[in-house]
Amino acid sequence: MLAQLAEVVGCCEPLAREPLSAQQSVELSRVFKAMGDPVRLRLLSLIASHVGGEACVCDLTDVFDLSGPTISHHLKVLREAGLVTGERRGTWVYYRVRPELLATVSAVLVPEPAEDSPASVPGGREALPVVEA
Amino acid sequence: MLAQLAEVVGCCEPLAREPLSAQQSVELSRVFKAMGDPVRLRLLSLIASHVGGEACVCDLTDVFDLSGPTISHHLKVLREAGLVTGERRGTWVYYRVRPELLATVSAVLVPEPAEDSPASVPGGREALPVVEA
DNA sequence: CGCCTGCTTCGACGTCGGTCGAAGCAGAGG
DNA sequence: CCTCTGCTTCGACCGACGTCGAAGCAGGCG
């Protein structure tokens, strides 16, 4: 049911080039809303900067003065926004970021595409992140 | 009272380089939260892509099926986040975007700075946008 | 099998935020 | 001065969201 961000946003011009359609703005705002919370933003940076590019939930929980369910909730929001992926390996669940989505969002903000970022695979527009609920 | 985004965020590394501090995440999330609404995101793109780089409120109101007070409220949120500035000229109020803030936020998202964007003035780190409530 | 640990889901509660109509303020123009 | 238009502020309503404890699920380990 969730529209695929790649189809709607991946092909949209930078903000200053032409106005967003109603649908594009809805899709894009989903990602920004997920990043619009201090805890989630910090979770994102903790995962992104962790060694190996992934972090266990138990590592993340210790950083905050928040309950486990709350951290789990925030991770779910990030997951549903397509910003991270979670994978269970044995007892622990490891989270990774999707650098493609960050690169896509980043490109929308600046007038100059700056497409030399390593995360943007050449001709990989259809390989952009897909939100699978 | 509002901390200046330039001091807190303007000097922070990309997300994947090192984790954000609690304060940095609070400041940054303020901007993302402002962009986390479809109407505000569309307002932002309408202003940014308008001829002359500025748009009158009356032009913006016509695009949405929303009341004037609601549009005004969203513009205030964007203003307080430092994303736009409003200037009264005679009867009308014109809004402009702050491309520096967009460039700053964009740079935080991608691991490669991509600092060749025209909005990032060389050595102008202290000239970055300041939120003045 | 039974327990223990790590994580998620559920249900509830309080706050925040988007929306509106009514009212207020600022200029322009009679 | 009065009025009219453009925009903002105010007050209220209601749904969305962040938070928690309790309960549920999954996998390791005696």
Compact overview of the structure:
The structure is a homodimer of 133-residue chains. The first copy, chain A, is mainly alpha-helical and 133 residues long.
Give an overview in words.
2 copies of one chain form a homodimer. Chain A is mostly helical and 133 residues long. Chain A has a domain of 84 residues: Winged helix-like DNA-binding domain superfamily/Winged helix DNA-binding domain (Arc Repressor Mutant, subunit A). Helices cover 46% and strands 11% of the residues of chain A. Chain A is built from 6 helices and 3 strands. Chain A has a 3-stranded antiparallel β-sheet with strand order 1-3-2. In chain A, strand 2 and strand 3 form a beta hairpin. In chain A, helix 3 packs across helix 5. The longest helix of chain A is centred in the N-terminal third of the chain and has 14 residues. Chain A starts with a helix and ends in a 24-residue tail after the last helix. The C terminus of chain A is likely disordered. At the A-B interface, helix 2, helix 3 and helix 6 of A face helix 2, helix 3 and helix 6 of B. The structure holds a DNA duplex (30 and 30 nucleotides).
